[in-house]
Amino acid sequence: MFNQNNPPVHDGRHTALFQSAGHINIPQAFDTDFAQAMATGLESHRHYKMAAFINNQVLNLSASQWQALSSQQRSEIQKLMHNNAAQGIGYCYGRSTLADAGAQTAVFKQFSEWLNGPQVLDWVKQLSGHTDICAASLQASCFEPGHFLTRHNDVHATEERRVAYVANFSRAWHPDWGGLLQFYSNHGQPQESWAPFFNSLNLFDVTRVHSVTYVTPFAQQSRYAFSGWFRATAL
Description:
alpha+beta, Jelly Rolls, 6 helices
């Protein structure tokens, strides 16, 4: 199990699986104290913005900005968002970067430092075969009932992304609540899916088509995670 003092050790089985399937799921990835600290930090965070994609525009609204809108304005945004999603375009979820975190940066910095440690970067290079990886970005996500992320890949020419990661810190997630990391063939055929079980680490090649499935109205908690990309350009 990993933490800031216990970096991952190269495992040939993980490498073989990643390089054959393009993705790998590691359960119980971090030691208990580290995972609990990350979960507490994500749960107590107060600076998530509503991230959405509407009519080819990125929308990032703080809670106060969203509340300041009239009910008609909020309804119109949701209608546009759902119309786009029906065509397989867009997303809606809570998001926060290290820059957005304000005073609540401790767990963000701790996890970012772990990601960007030389031993972790070397591990991901060996795992993926992408030897040009030099840094890892980070964002926190909070998916609540009604949130989703439609089918896409994570290729980004400017950032030169190589490997995506999702570190899951929802304490007791039930797969019937949705929020699954769902993989697809390039033709849209559903393939493997992973529930965001507590303390699991997902890694996948950025060319893999994937989504986060709709979080149901009866989900009993938010879906918390750190996610981002191991990349070949500096942050």
